Amino acid sequence: FDVVDLIHAKRDKGVLSTDQINWLVDAYTRGYVGDEQMAAMTMAIFINGMEREEIRDLTLAMIASGETLSFEGLGKPTTDKHSTGGVGDKITLPLAPLVASFGVAVPQLSGRGLGHTGGTLDKLESIPGWRADLTNEEFYAQLRGVGGVICAAGSGLAPADKKLYALRDITGTVEAIPLIASSIMSKKIAEGTSALVLDVKFGSGAFMKDADRSRELAETMVRLGKDAGVKTVALLTNMNVPLGLAIGNANEVRESVEVLAGGGPADVRELTIALAREMLAQVGHEDADVEAALDNGQAMDAWRGMISAQGGDPDAALPQPKESHVVTADRDGVLVEQEALPFGIAAWRLGAGRARKQDPVQHAAGIDLHAKPGDTVRKGEPLFTMHADEPARFERALESLEGAYRIGDEGDTVHDGGPLIAG
Ligand code: URA
To answer: Could you say which residues form the signal peptide (predicted)?
Structure first.
C-alpha cells in the first residue's frame, strides 16, 4: 500500500480495509510510515470518524504490535477496571484490594499522570518503599498469592498505541472516539484480563464533557471488549466536581485508606462499591458483600498485603507538605459551584502533576477540600487548603481557580452535574 493513498481515502470519508489498517499500524510501528503522515491520518480520523469494523481492526492491529499476556494458568478468574480519568479519581486504590479480597485476581496495569488528571502510580509512590515496576514473574506471583497488583504496564504491550498516543497528544487528536476506544481497549485486551469494568467519565474534569459523547465512547469500548471475548461493562459517571475531598498524591492515598477502613467521603465509597459489585458479578460473585468487606477490615488486609508485596510500608508516615495555604469563605451561604477541571489544573500547578513526561511529581502537593457543593458554609470557615513544596506556586494555582467555586444563597441551584452514577 501507499500511505498517501490511505490518507486520501480517509480524508475523503472512505473506509479502510482490514489489510490496509494492519499494514498502516505495522508500518508506523516499524517507522516506515512517518509521524507527519500518521498525524495527517489521525486528523482525518478525528474529523471523519471510523466505521465499527475499522475501529475493531485498528484495535486488533495495535494488540498485534506487541506481546499479550495470559492468565489462564492462574487458577482464578481475573477482572480489571479502567477509568477514563478525572480529578481526585483515586478509586483504583481502594477498589483493587476490595475486589482481590474475594479471592479474585486483579491485574491492574496503571499509568502516570500527564496534565490535570492524576496517575495511580504517582499516588502510590507516595508510600515509602513502594515499587511500580515488577518483572512478569513478580507480577504473576503476586496475582497468584496476594491477588491484587497495581503496577506499571511493561513497554511490550501495544507499542503501536504508545507511539500513536504520544503523537496524538501533540497534534490535537486525542479526543476522537475511535482513537480513544482503540487505545484503551488494545492495552486492556493485550493484558489478558477475562473481565473488565469501564468507568467512563463525563463532565468538566473528563475527556468528554458531554454525557452523550461519553455514552458513545462507552458503547464503542464495550463492543470492542465483547468482540475480543472479554466480558466488558461500563458505568457512566459524573466528573463535574472533584471526586472525594483530596486531590493530589499522598492525600489521595490517605483518603483511600479511610475508605478501606470503612469511612471516607460518601462519593468515593459509593463509586468504589458500585465498581466492585460490577467486577465481582462478572466473575461469578454476584452475592459478595462488598460493604461488609470495607467495614470489617477484609479489604484493608488485602491492601496491606498488596502494598507490602511491592516493597511498601503500609504503616509508614506519608510525605508532609512543606507549605500550606488555606482559602476561606468570604460570606455565609451554600457552596453552589466547585468545578473539577480548574481544581485539577490548580493541583497540577501546585506540583501534584507533571508538565513533561520526565518531570517528577511532588507527592505532598495538592488540595484538600473542606466543603462540597450543597454544603452550608460560614464566612471565615476554610473552603480548601492548598499544599506545595514552594510557596510561589500558590498564586499560579489561585489564578486557575478564579470563577471555579462560588458561594450562593440557600435555594440556589447547585452546579454539581447531577447524580454520581448516570448509568
Ligand atoms: N487513555 C488512553 O490510554 N488512551 C487514550 O486515547 C485516552 C486515554
So the answer is: none
Assigned domain for 62 exists: no
Domain-embedded: residue 60:
no
**Are residues 268 and 374 located together in one domain of the fold?**
no
Same domain for 296 and 272, yes or no, is: yes
- Together in a domain, 205 and 116: yes
Residue 208 Cβ < 6 Å to ligand 1 = no
Look at residues 266, 256, 340 and name the one whose alpha carbon lies nearest to residue 85: 340
Query: Which letter, b or e, does each residue of 133-163 get, where b requires 16 or more Cβ atoms within 10 Å of its Cβ?
Result: ebeeeebbebbeebbbbbbbbbeebbebbbb
Mean pLDDT of the chain: 95
Mutate to test the pocket of ligand 1, among 184, 186, 208, 221 (most ligand atoms within 8 A of CB): 184
* Confidence (pTM): 0.95
Domain count, the chain: 3
Grid coordinates representing 330?
Answer: 468570604
pLDDT-based confidence at residue 114 (cuts at 50, 70, 90) = low
Assigned domain for 164 exists: yes
Identify the residue whose C-alpha is closest to ligand 1 atom 2: 184
Centroid of ligand 1 to alpha carbon of 297 (angstroms): 34
Tell me, yes or no, whether 108 lies in a domain: yes
ipTM of the predicted assembly exceeds 0.90: yes
